[in-house]
From TrEMBL:
Family, similarity comment: Belongs to the glycosyl hydrolase 57 family.
Superkingdom field: Bacteria
GO MF annotation terms: catalytic activity
GO biological process: carbohydrate metabolic process
SUPFAM superfamilies registered for this protein in UniProt: Glycoside hydrolase/deacetylase
Family matches, as InterPro entries: DUF3536, GH57_Enzymes, Glyco_hydro/deAcase_b/a-brl, Glyco_hydro_57_N
Entry protein name: Glycoside hydrolase family 57 N-terminal domain-containing protein
Annotated keywords: Carbohydrate metabolism
Domain named Glycoside hydrolase family 57 N-terminal: residues: 83-302
Length: 488
């Protein structure tokens, strides 16, 4: 009833010819904890803070939450960031979740979007991994926000039709993309329908490129919210639609950390723009799902697939390498191939060994996040997925293999391939997650996947320092001898 009343109120607030402004923030931090100790190391570059999570919380997450900005904007909160905030800054975490509830109570729709779990570039994942990433993201969202997600943000807005189809099958109705990800002409002030292979459809919003790019990269553009609202926003309004009395929405999509971390004090710019600048110059603050409720998509478009917002070469930035990053990016392909081959070997072990205790190993993996985080009980999990009367030893070994699958997924985090060189913290973290998976498989089965993985890593090489992936693997922190096979 509350949802119906709020939705009717939202519809009653529709004005012909209205110009809406939507600000979307993509909030995300990759997991950087040591996968063996679960401790986030000291990050000296974040001084005087212990690590970048603390620094960004102080500069961005906390001030935006306390100012109420999350209640007005559209946002997605990465699951790994949400888990960290819940543990270390529960007051900030609760304020962010409450923002979605406030929006839901007022308009009948939330303003938070889900996120595929590990920030994986889904077009480069196999179908099984796409499904797991999407399901884990939806499970995480539902647990935290107390409602099913209707929108989903994809890492780097990287898309392919198979991923969109899986999302649609799971109840996702919309996503946000860059305007250059479409193959047909569009008006980015309105949403569009994409017809999927299954016959389902997905609503797609395309962000305004000049505004989004300017807000992200031109500090002068966000120095004064009144000037921004009086000068830069009107320049993007479609005058023909305004004269015809047709509603339109300007969508600005950026990394959420822009507001206070990447650009100091921009949290205050955002607050003033929301509360004064935009409304005083004729722009009503809105969110995609609310706009979609008032003005459903009517036209169909075709997408360029695969594509992303941060690569002009499909998704080559995270696969073969391309000119989107400086230097020699050929290290990316052998790193991805090494991780892919490790996953193939790990999957065979999982299917065979976990299949002794589970009647549906892959369905069990899809549900594992809820077990891992304590959202469902061991009893419930085994009742649904276990074979009749598995032994305690089988259950223990299966749990280790499921945990190995978790870390295999972590190893494909997009950050490991985003930047210009192998010899950085992001690729090292992906390699560290892979090593943790190798360790868990070794502990559960005695099968050694380390030798072949390290051999594969010799093929990927830093163009700056000359070190190989195998060297980076050997430089990872020492762990107890029994946790890994001897390294030749």
């Amino acid at each position: 009833m509350i949802e119906q009343i709020a939705a009717e109120e939202s519809m009653s607030q529709t004005h012909p010819g209205s110009v809406y402004l939507c600000l979307h923030g993509h909030f995300y931090q990759p997991p950087r904890e040591d996968p063996f100790t679960h401790i986030l190391p000291i990050e000296s570059d974040a001084a005087p803070f212990k690590n970048f999570n603390e620094k960004i919380t102080a500069e961005c997450y906390r001030p935006n939450a306390e100012a109420g900005n999350f209640a007005a904007i559209s946002f997605d909160l990465g699951p790994t960031l949400a888990a960290w905030l819940e543990q270390t800054h529960p007051d900030v975490y609760r304020l962010i979740l409450d923002s979605d509830r406030q929006h839901y109570q007022r308009y009948g729709v939330g303003n938070a979007m889900a996120q595929a779990y590990n920030h994986t570039i889904l077009p480069l994942a196999n179908a099984r991994d796409k499904r797991t990433q999407i399901l884990w993201g939806l499970q995480d969202f539902a647990h935290r926000f107390g409602r099913p997600a209707h929108g989903m943000w994809l890492a780097e807005t990287a898309i392919d039709l198979e991923s969109l189809d899986i999302m649609a099958d799971q109840g996702i109705t919309y996503t946000i993309l860059a305007p250059w990800q479409v193959a047909t002409p569009i008006d980015p002030t309105e949403p569009y329908l994409v017809r999927l292979p299954s016959g389902r459809t997905m609503t797609v919003f395309f962000y305004n490129a000049p505004l989004s790019g300017g807000v992200s990269f031109d500090g002068n553009l966000t120095s004064n919210a009144d000037v921004f609202a009086s000068t830069h926003l009107p320049a993007q309004v479609v005058q023909e639609k305004q004269r015809a009395g047709e509603a339109q929405m300007l969508l600005i999509a950026t990394d959420g950390e822009l507001y206070g971390h990447h650009k100091p004090w921009r949290d205050k710019f955002l607050s003033y723009l929301i509360q004064h600048g935009a409304p005083e110059h004729g722009f009503e603050i809105c969110t995609p799902e609310r706009f979609m409720l008032m003005h459903p998509a009517q036209k169909e478009v075709q997408l360029k697939v695969p594509s992303a917002w941060s690569c002009g070469h499909g998704v080559a930035r995270w696969s073969t390498g391309c000119s989107c990053t400086e230097g020699d990016s050929r290290w990316k392909e052998p790193l991805r191939e090494a991780l892919n081959r490790l996953e193939e070997r790990a999957d065979r072990v999982f299917e065979l060994r976990a299949g002794e205790a589970l009647h549906d190993p892959w369905g069990a993996r899809d549900a594992y996040l809820s077990l891992r985080n304590g959202w469902i009980s061991e009893e419930h999990f085994w009742k649904q997925y276990g074979r009749q009367q598995p032994s305690a030893e089988d259950m223990h070994h299966t749990r280790l293999l499921l945990e190995a699958q978790y870390y295999i997924q972590c190893s494909f985090t997009s950050c490991g391939f985003f930047f210009e060189d192998l010899d950085r913290i992001e690729p090292r973290n992906c390699i560290a997650f892979a090593r943790r998976a190798i360790s868990l498989i070794w502990e559960a089965t005695g099968i050694d996947l380390q030798q072949e993985f390290v051999s594969d890593l010799r093929q990927t090489k830093s163009w700056r320092s000359g070190v190989t992936g195998a060297y980076l693997y050997r430089q990872l922190p020492v762990v107890s001898a029994w946790k890994l096979p001897a390294l030749q």
